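Query structure, 164 tokens:
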């Protein structure tokens, strides 16, 4: 599992999660039961499909907190594995600003299976891009206050200048 959090100024909130699970051969559920568990948790998906190898993929796109998933014609590339955020930085905030309305709160789900219908692995990603721009601003304001306070403290406690 990977987690990404905002900074202290915005409350150190979780905004992204990535989970990869490989099922042990003796503990494999069916791909259909894993998908059913996702539907029970998140509601009807925005878009779904099946792979030729028996896997199931789906995505949920929520435009607001507490809303039902919006219907989509195809999945969006809102969360890439290679660009999974490690925290709220300038790159992630800029990306969120550009795609917040398109992606909102986005869940990407993929359960792989074998020809018998048993699941072999599960990959899920979730990212809340609705509030990241404001959280980034709050984090920067907080960081600036902390830097200014530390600077004022250091300057006040500095040694006198040497005699020249």
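Result returned for the query:
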């Amino acid at each position: 599992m990977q987690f990404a959090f905002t900074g202290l100024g915005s409350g150190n909130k979780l905004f992204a999660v990535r989970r990869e699970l490989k099922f042990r051969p003796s503990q494999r559920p069916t791909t259909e039961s894993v998908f059913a568990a996702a539907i029970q948790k998140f509601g009807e998906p925005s878009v779904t499909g099946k792979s030729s190898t028996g896997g199931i993929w789906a995505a949920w796109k929520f435009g607001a907190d507490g809303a039902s998933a919006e219907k989509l014609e195809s999945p969006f590339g809102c969360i890439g594995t290679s660009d999974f955020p490690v925290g709220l930085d300038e790159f992630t905030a800029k990306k969120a600003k550009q795609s917040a309305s398109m992606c909102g709160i986005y869940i990407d789900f993929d359960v792989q299976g074998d020809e018998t219908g048993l699941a072999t692995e599960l990959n899920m990603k979730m990212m809340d891009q609705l509030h990241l721009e404001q959280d980034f601003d709050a984090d920067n304001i907080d960081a600036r206050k902390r830097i200014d306070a530390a600077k004022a403290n250091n300057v006040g406690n500095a040694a006198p200048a040497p005699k020249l």
